[in-house]
């Protein structure tokens, strides 16, 4: 008679590949975006976690396994990006819960688009109510936007377009963010507005 014994090796494998889809999707501040992370080749299926810079994000849903081969994990993450998230790093990590080494990562830098945010300041030795005929007045239009403005800042005086005219003492810098009125006359009285656009619509 023949005697035989069989030993089954039930091996664990590190994940061999990690992929995040939607990385190239354009991000708009205040608008939801969902990312999907998949880790392949891990046995048991890899544990997936999401990180923003070095901070763990809650809300990542881990499905383990997601396929019949028992080696694939899938996780989805939905975020609502803010303007301040631009240049931060979003990352998906995959690690085998049975093998505490060999972490796979897929990371990328966020580029969050948002329309211009504008603040208008009167830079003068005098308060706005103290400006008199003959004074010089300096306006500064401060703009935050991503992407940057795609055209020159527009200025309006009492809702009417204001153009550079050195002969009349109306001077602007190359981007239009600074406006100087030299030796103002009484016709300069009224409201001044600056307008900027970068192609991103306001919500």
Descriptive notes:
- The chain is mainly beta and 203 residues long.
- The protein contains no helices and 16 strands.
- It has a 5-stranded mixed beta sheet with strand order 2-10-11-15-14, with no helix packed on it. A 4-stranded antiparallel beta sheet has the order 1-3-7-6, with no helix packed on it. It has a 4-stranded antiparallel beta sheet with strand order 5-4-8-9, with no helix packed on it.
- A hairpin with a 2-residue loop joins strand 12 and strand 13.
- 17% of the residues are buried.
Topology:
Elements: E1 17-21, E2 27-28, E3 33-40, E4 47-52, E5 55-57, E6 61-63, E7 73-79, E8 89-95, E9 104-109, E10 112-123, E11 137-146, E12 154-157, E13 160-162, E14 170-172, E15 178-181, E16 192-195
Parallel strand pairs: 2-10
Antiparallel strand pairs: 1-3, 3-7, 4-5, 4-8, 6-7, 8-9, 10-11, 11-15, 12-13, 12-16, 14-15
Quick structural overview:
The chain has 203 residues and is mostly beta strands. The chain has strands spanning 17-21, 27-28, 33-40, 47-52, 55-57, 61-63, 73-79, 89-95, 104-109, 112-123, 137-146, 154-157, 160-162, 170-172, 178-181, 192-195.
